[in-house]
Amino acid sequence: MARDTGFPAADAENDFSRQRRRAELSRLVSWLRREPDDVNEILPFDEVVAAVGRVGERSLGLQVIPVNSIVGSVDRTRDFDRFFRPMSTRVRERWQRLAAAQRRGESVPPIQVYRIGSMHFVSDGHHRVSIAYAMHWSTIDAYVTEIQTKISPDGIAQRGDLVIKDHRRLFLTRVPLSGPQRAAVVVTDPWEYAEISQSVEAWGFRLMQEVGEFLSRETVARRWFGEEFLPVVRMLRAAQMLPDHTDAEAYLWVARERYRLVRQHVWNDEIIAELSHLAPRRHRPASP
User: Which InterPro entries does the entry mention (predicted)?
Assistant: First the structure.
């Protein structure tokens, strides 16, 4: 790390230039590694909220929060990267003025953030967060507003993760499972959530025809999980089929093939045995 000169303005200027170089180097490394374009992008608050669904919010007041938990912004996603390094020189003047003031020991007001899960999104104080990252601060004072969401935001690390969260939220709207049942139905391809939703709704329609009465989405979801999903998954696991797939992915694959081959919405050991030789296997990447 470069040694300070003792002159706040000069040191602030050096800090900014260093962060700009790091931002550009990070972009170059990501390009050379052929990483996704969004790996260095700051998370956009509105898109995250839309993906996980807003239920409500509450003010938590002034708190001390970890700097590395600040991963997103309400409205400055083009000015800073994932680690709040400046993406251009247009923020230089204000950045250096605030950094020099902090080096002189002047007081800095708390930032304002929204909290979603363990993540924080800046609504006011982007330059101060950027300086905190540059100075390797571990914590920062912040006024926190917590956002309650329909589904868990866990697992969101980059912008691309929002697609699967959005599809999962829509799936749980159409198939309102809860508790352990909700946690058991997981896929890695976001489009498969839509396919499972259609499968459950079709199953529910046939069930309503059979019982001769209307059933709520909650009832259909609960009965589908207990009467359709679990028995199929147990048969698949007993037959040691699709071990590299999640339970939901395995169910979806065999449900497609079952109807394609036998044209019936029934399950038994003979059907599982007939499908076992067709089961695909995922190719896992070699260990580094």
Answer: ParB/Sulfiredoxin_sf
